[in-house]
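Standup notes
- HV: blocked on the assembly model, inputs below
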Amino acid sequence: MTRPALNQDRDDLLFERVAQIVADTFGRRSTIAAIYRKRSEYSSFYASEILSVQLDTGDELKMFLKNFGSYPDPKDAMEQRRNRELHVYRDILARASLGTAKYYGSVWDEPEGPFWLLLELVRGIAVRHCSFDYWVEAARWLGHMQGYFYQNSGLLQGHEFLIQHDGPFFRSARERAFRAVSQRSPDLGKRLAAALSPYDQSVELMMRQPKTLVHGAYRPAEILVDASERPARICPVDWEQAAIGSGFYDLAFLADGFKSPQLEQILDAYCTEAANCGLQVPDQGSAKHIVNCYRLHKTVTWLSQSFDRKFPEKDVMKLVSMAEKLAGLVLSNRTACVP
Ligand SMILES: Nc1ncnc2c1ncn2[C@@H]1O[C@H](COP(=O)(O)OP(=O)(O)O)[C@@H](O)[C@H]1O
Ligand SMILES: [Mg+2]
């Protein structure tokens, strides 16, 4: 490799794996001329690199290397998160043609590492930098993916590493939020407890939704768009929090902050495509109501982290006010018809 070796053993492991990937992709006779590594400018929590593999034929293979062993501070459940993302790419997405990043391989050595995930380097930019039309396409892609896994639920069976969006998942978030907020201020804790009176009903409703694959953090920063392809390629990354649950969990991330009429456009695109792919979807009024239930859950989840992650007091107050507002919306619309 052209980069000075910091750890020769690890570099050797990487070289062996890359050689295998090259042989699988270009045939056994291909020879690697050089491997260039550079840090990805999009590295966020984990360090990630762009690997550029040059062959003596002049061909080049570019890969995205996500390094789960390099991060600023530890966070919860890191082992489960990294294993989940590896499994999702290797064992679930690789069996479906949905346009997600190709899984090339990994260098994985429990418990010390390395933990390197090698993926196709996807061209494109995050949908948050794209015009609204692409947000609608991201909603459509989500509907397609979730309809696909609803119809092909066998592909999700036996994958214990997926988070289950069940009663304990939703209810424990409320308990943790109440504890975190009360630790900060008992009065604020009481306000939150009062605001969350409709939470149980919304948990019931969320649990009644048809179950499929959930990305788990369908944020506009994690959805890549390659607009040079026709139609544009939509490619969500960062599957560490993948789960089995309702697609509305993801839709709530994407639709966050939108008002009429854009909100309806996003919901319509999702529901139409999901229905075309065989997923039962509610009418638009009910869809909005369910999205609000998930937004409430999301706010509760943020609050549950507010003490450990030392959120400033004013942010905690804002989140409690947001929970009050969303709980009010959930209460006022609880009669919306639900499948
Ligand atoms: N396969 C890929 N190809 C191109 N860019 C990627 C790929 N995977 C992730 N990225 C970019 O790198 C960023 C960080 O990757 P991500 O998986 O989200 O890591 P983290 O868990 O550290 O947030 C993403 O937001 C995206 O911009
Ligand atoms: Mg990320």
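- HV (later): unblocked. The chain has two domains: 8-120, 125-332. The domain at 8-120 is CATH 3.30.200.20 (Phosphorylase Kinase; domain 1).
- Next: hand off to the docking folks.
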